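Researcher: Next entry in the queue.
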Amino acid sequence: MKKNFFLFFLILSNFALAQVTFTPGIRAGANFAKFTETDGGFYDMFESTELWENEERVQTSYITDFYIGVFGTIRFSKVYALQPEINYSRQGTIMKTSTWEQKSELSYLSIQAVNKFFLQKFNLQAGLSIDYLIADKNFDPYVKNNTDLGILLGAGYDITNQFGIEARFKKGLVSQIKTTSEDHTNILFQLGVYYTFK
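Model: Structure for this entry, 198 residues:
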């Protein structure tokens, strides 16, 4: 009995391991990024806003740049995979009031863990991102955050077995700058391609 159970467990383990595959790849595309205009006071719950009451609120708009990265897809089944990624992402924002305007450019090294759910050639994506600020231009807040934590959602389509297209939305959770009593966080849309080395 014990021998038969051990043999069954060994066969089951080998079958499960045989289903797991690892596929490296690269991804690249366009970034459409900006800061939020307001985060609804979430970061201001414990702070006084009296110093900012007479200040004009800052408006933000998108800038266009690029991202490039590498990934490894760990495929556990036909419908699910975990995809760790390392990406170089150029982001930023345009901030303006009636009297001034400034374009800030920020470069991040992003480490991401993306869950992918497959529906034939389509895949749905959801994950977390830790972003490290490695360079910036025209960005000098009173207190600079060098890290960001984000959540992402997206979708992809496999054109061939190796090549596909994808679109993602990522929302930063850490305030990058504070103006007129409001905190501003990253918003990012990505549209690009990916290639797997199968």
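Model: The radius of gyration is 22 Å.
Researcher: Noted, moving on.
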